[in-house]
């Protein structure tokens, strides 16, 4: 018997309702902010991520699922931002639309050690605002993430905020960190000892307790930012305070991808353990240019759907339409049932039938398990009278109806969906 690959998950029907509720909620919130959906390929040229995320990042070095075909190398996407920017440039949205606000949902892939809230196939709900360097965009992005988490019934989370500054500011931070860690190599985990050589900022992002303790004494103040970046960050903070969005300044927050500049943030939750980020994002003003386009300021974020559901008390609403369950007791009744089911569905009435050949008692049990409001019974007696028996599953009341009277009877008594 085959089993699923470790780090993947079957989302069964009893769980899918919560996913559908989350996705519907996300679409509504994105619409309020005038973000439009973009649907992206699952597979991209691997060099897209090498260039955008950085050759030295852990994602590129260790975590990408690669597919090699002769001279080509493809990757299952490990994140969505690079794909959105690639689509933005390839489809000339920089020339036809300029500033755009886009959102996406879907599966991402990273070859990681599976653990709570961290899968090899996971799902992101994310957005990107491309074409503006205005600090107010950063405020809107963080407010949008906050609204989504509230709408997903997540409580007890914390928004952590920092500014990396411009590339020159980041370079100064790198040099300061190298000097600070110069004699502390033996106190770092093996991964961070490698990061010292190739991407020292990632040491600040390490979850290893010893590494966190080692860098805790590093003093990172706002004076490392240039005047322009400092002013930008002040506008972001003032905007969040104006909107009443609580945040915590986190000078050691850097995020793990190379493209971030200026504002970075993450939403964390204590119930998730060491991997406590519900989602994260920030500004990436150089990425569009690095991928071959013009210099355009951009900002975005992504929430991890699985982690959000772990922290959420989101409860899917009960089905808001009534279910009619048809039971056919003879072969001739089955023919009539097929036509009645089709007529009901065209009228917007949710209905189902039993196809397993059970006894009447077994089919009634199936109807009850399905949560049917009414059961429609058609047997030899009903066929002789050109009628049907309609049973109310709540009261147990039964009545006979002529077949032609059934639609009007149901339309008066059941909640319907939009008809076809």
What key phrases describe this protein's structure?
alpha+beta; Rossmann fold; elongated; 16 strands; BirA Bifunctional Protein, domain 2; 420 residues; 16 helices; five-stranded mixed sheet; eight-stranded mixed sheet
Question: What report would you give on this structure?
Answer:
With 420 residues, this protein is of the alpha+beta class. It folds into 2 domains: 13-166 and 226-311, BirA Bifunctional Protein, domain 2 (2-Layer Sandwich), CATH 3.30.930.10; 323-413, 3-Layer(aba) Sandwich (Rossmann fold). It contains 16 helices and 16 strands. It has helices spanning 13-32, 46-53, 58-63, 81-90, 93-96, 135-151, 167-181, 190-198, 209-215, 227-242, 287-290, 305-311, 331-346, 360-369, 380-384, 406-413; strands spanning 36-37, 43-45, 65-69, 72-76, 100-109, 121-130, 158-163, 248-249, 261-268, 277-283, 298-304, 323-328, 350-353, 374-378, 387-392, 398-402. The mean pLDDT is 88.
